[in-house]
Sequence to fold (281 residues):
Amino acid sequence: MDRKLLINAVRVSRAIGSGPLDEAAYLALWQSHVTPIDDPFMRSVVGGIFADRLAWVFVAGYQLAVRSVFSVESDRWVAYVASEDRSGTLPAVSVTHVAGETQLTGWKTWVAAVDHVGELVVRTNGAQAEHYLVSRESTGLTLSAKADVSFLGDLSQGSAEFSGVVVQRQLQVIDEVPFNLREALAIYGALCGLVLAQPMLEASSESCLDLLDIAAGLWATSLCEPNDIQQLKSFDQNLQGFIASVEDDLAATIPDWDRDRRLVSMYSPGIARYSQAGVQP
Fold:
């Protein structure tokens, strides 16, 4: 863990100021200060340093997870588009091959950062899941934002309708670690970054950095060995305890902390199940 880089990012974030960040403003900071970083896990932590709320902590971690699992590099945000209409009212996305082109038609019901996302990783749910990369500018793609978002409400969230959308390319899952575990570690890294950026929590910075060292080590493993899995469970428990110890200050400082706080703990049940032998999250 490059502590010098983190200290510099904290300095820069404080120099910029702590005014409220909307999605467009956070995207601009992310593009300026996160995308130039070579180390993938550090991108998530620095993304958290420049965040001023849990919605942007989620974005910082989510971007790392999607890029890691699907090996997508872009200076724009990427969304993993997997959810479909459970009622069956909106048809699921199907794949057709026309004149040498692969086309997508149907609906996906959850798109993160729908107002500003640049690329979509679209999952099709047939006998075997397939993944395709689609640009926001693709002909036949319609993105729509929802107006009634509560959890992480500062993050635009919506749906995607595909009508003969030509894909850029098919993607392969290149990571043996389950996506939700990658996402959890990345978001935890960003969460620690958020804590490091808070002036009133400087006394807790060393504990936070120690947790980040463990998280970075776990990120570099396959999480297949029993010792790694148990270390992940222990790390999760220690992180939850650490956040609880500084939560009063965070709740008093971070906008909508109480509303969005479940982001901090929502991955713990999956990690606990994964730590049980033979059980996948």
